[in-house]
Amino acid sequence: MIYLDNAATTSVHPKVLKAMLPYFDKKYSNPSGIYEFATAGKNAINEVREVIAKSINAKPSEIYFTSGGTESDNWALIGMARAMSDKGKHIITSKIEHHAVINTCLYLEKMGYDVTYLDVDEEGFISLRQLEREIRKDTILISIMFANNEVGTIEPIKKIGELARRNNICFHTDAVQAYLHTDIDVEKMNIDMLSASAHKFRGAKGTGFLYIRDNFVPDIFMHGGKQEKGRRAGTENVPGIIGMGEAVKVGIADMQKSNVYVRNMRDYLLYRIEHEIPDVYLNGARHMRLPGNLNVSFSNIEGESLLIMLDMDGICTSSGSACTAGVSNGSHVLKAMGLDKERLKGALRITLDAENTMEEMDYVIWRIKKNVATLRDKE
Ligand code: PLP
């Protein structure tokens, strides 16, 4: 099998698995206990808080463990909307957010909030001018993703942060796809809240974190015990958190090298696809793009049919995000970018990681060429 769907999830790194295992049997304590066996667990997860905080230039007290990207996004948006409702009820986001943000905004609209969904251009960038124009006296939150999960476009986060700070508005970014694939500094970028998910960077599923700047206090999301300063109750997923800490350590150490390797492989794949297959279009930005993301449309074919043929060749790809796969009404991201029906229909997403090899790319190109030709002959 050749796995090219790393934006959907990644394999757990062997070092991560090794770090997690003792926390299932030998070190299984509940960190809320007051005996030494439990405080050792508490200390271990607090060390992870430090590792994560350092990776984004935050303070350990600003890192909250969650069950992943979806929960972090829900908490950031609903928690802040509730906490700030006296000041206003207007939220600004974009049309290309992950459903964890879009559907939370739709829920907030039902709860009486007013949400502005910013347009994007054909490469998937929001317009800073439109953002500035949409800011109102009652705007309480700006939530713009760091990098898009379908097309990999990296948004102008530093400039968005500056704008938010100048207008005294809380700025949340969904960095689920960007974290450990690009440098993030919450101070330099004026980020007030940031969501991340461990299974996207070789940690385990069901673990993530939300960074919340110390002077922001979103409403409590999970009511119960005193965990996470009483703001997110529930016994901590200790093995998952320990694994996430190890994944961050490995990710930080490997990031530069791995980005160069993955970007070269992606560019090789793109070069050959663009030069050897006619009527192919790159979706998303050519330069401000996640290193491992490739999203291309082939005219006159269904992306889903190509995906199925590649699957029969042992190659895992996606026709959109994992959450929209199988839904045939087209990607909301590609639609927002203004792509025509032909490009919407023929899209294929390939997301690479440092485990992939150049030999795999040669096989993948051969199979894509062959399958596209077969599908076009049938038309
Ligand atoms: N946000 C983005 C940009 C994502 O790509 C994903 C998952 O694909 C999520 C949020 C949801 O993360 P999780 O799977 O950890 O709930």
In short:
The protein is of the alpha/beta class and 379 residues long. Helix content is 40%, strand content 14%. A 7-stranded mixed sheet has the order 2-8-7-6-5-3-4, sandwiched between helices. Strands 9-10-12 form a 3-stranded antiparallel sheet. The protein has a two-stranded parallel ribbon with strand order 1-11.
SSE order in H/E notation? EHHEHEHEHEHEEEHEEHEHHEH
Small-molecule binders: pyridoxal-5'-phosphate
- Extended strand count: 12
Number of structural domains:
2
Main-sheet strand order equals: 2-8-7-6-5-3-4
- Biggest β-sheet strands, sense, barrel: 7 strands, mixed
**CATH homology-level superfamily of the largest domain:** Type I PLP-dependent aspartate aminotransferase-like (Major domain)
Can you identify the CATH class of the largest domain? Alpha Beta
Indicate the low-confidence ranges by residue numbers.
none
Give a written overview of the molecule.
The chain is an alpha/beta fold and 379 residues long. The protein contains 11 helices and 12 strands. The longest helix has 39 residues, at 238-276. It is globular. The mean pLDDT is 96. The structure holds pyridoxal-5'-phosphate.
